[in-house]
Write a structure and sequence with these properties.
C-N_Hydrolase_sf, hydrolase, seven-stranded mixed β-sheet, C-N_Hydrolase, 326 residues, Nitrilase/N-carbamoyl-D-aminoacid amidohydrolase, alpha/beta, hydrolase activity, six-stranded mixed β-sheet
Length: 326
């Protein structure tokens, strides 16, 4: 970091399924490489430590064996590498909470030893993986607040806006796309079963358009990193994307599969249209959203003192512009 600039990298990491120790060691080695390029923050994909693209069919025993506590061996390996290299790092894993529940979690390890964990809000990976219950936003020594939304969390407009309203000006968006189709396209993640449509046809191409729109709407940088299954060792140009507060793409990983890196001009956040739009909001108009559907509908019913006196009956007819002239 120099002045008001933060140099970040989005790493489209290819994990080895079920081998947390190997993946943690590879991430630690990657931090050594990016440190030489002056990177202050490296963002790795969702579930990059556990490695599975599809966990839905894992047995109970396999899932339990894969899960780790937040102070487990894998996070300790990554945190130690952060201390050695001076590069902050975000990694994903299946977390085993002290009460035994399992979460799709993303942990940010900072240079000062602090760790921040986001539990995915819309978990749909396995019936035993529980959804988180809060947004994650925190302060950093770089003078910016960072928010985290994992995978499908960032599909929902409200989640990104809520993160911005909590003060985040840099959004970390780790992701793990589904297995490639015959055409080579990677589908978006499914939502929990109760919300799914009969046919999901959206692919990662549409996802990146959404990211640019969310960045511009909220005046924030977005650092997106997508994971791939081990059998697909050719990363695509969509695997890592960094977007600025005006919605412009600053960097992608390119077809070589290398990481994407960019200098974030932190001063551009407050100059962005998105920040002006946030300041112009009318929160007093939003109280309606907290009411039940029935109460909401009554807000727009005819006022109780309204009268038909003085009203004029109107009739309407629709006439085509292309009538034949006689």
């Amino acid at each position: 970091m120099a002045g008001s600039t933060l140099r970040v990298a989005s790493v489209p990491f290819v994990s080895r399924d079920g081998d947390c120790a190997h993946n943690a060691a590879q991430i630690a080695a990657c931090l050594v490489d990016v440190a030489r390029e002056g990177i202050a923050l490296a963002v790795f994909p969702e579930l990059c430590l556990s490695g599975y693209t599809d966990t839905a069919k894992l047995s109970r025993a396999s899932l339990d064996a894969l899960a780790e506590p937040l102070d487990g061996a894998s996070i300790r390996t990554v945190a130690a590498a952060v201390q050695r290299t001076g590069v902050a790092c975000g990694v994903g894993l299946i977390e085993r909470a002290p009460d035994g529940r399992l979460f799709n979690s993303y942990v940010m390890c900072l240079q000062d030893g602090a760790r921040h964990c986001h539990r995915k809000l819309h978990a749909a990976e396995h019936r035993r993986i529980v959804s988180g219950d809060r947004h994650t936003v925190f302060d950093t020594g770089w003078g910016v607040r960072i928010g985290i939304l994992t995978g499908g969390d960032s599909y929902l407009v409200e989640n990104v806006r809520m993160t911005a309203l909590l003060g985040a000006s840099v959004l970390i968006a780790p992701h793990r796309s589904g297995r490639a189709s015959r055409t080579g396209e990677h589908p978006l993640q499914p939502l929990p079963m109760m919300y799914r449509s009969p046919v999901d046809t959206d692919t990662m191409e549409s996802m990146h358009g959404w990211l640019c729109a969310r960045a511009a709407d909220n005046g924030m940088f977005i650092v997106f990193s997508d994971g791939r299954e081990a059998s697909n060792d050719q990363a695509t140009d969509a695997a890592a994307v960094i977007v600025d507060p005006s919605g412009l793409v600053l960097a992608t990983s390119g077809t070589s599969g290398a990481y994407a890196a960019a200098n974030l001009d932190l001063a551009s956040i407050e100059r962005s249209r998105g920040r002006q739009w946030l300041a112009a909001r009318r929160p007093d108009l939003y109280a309606l959203l907290a009411q039940s559907a029935a109460d909401r509908s009554r807000e727009y019913d005819e006022p109780p003192n309204a009268s038909a006196r003085g009203s004029v009956a109107l009739g309407f007819a629709v006439v085509s512009r292309h009538r034949l002239m006689r």
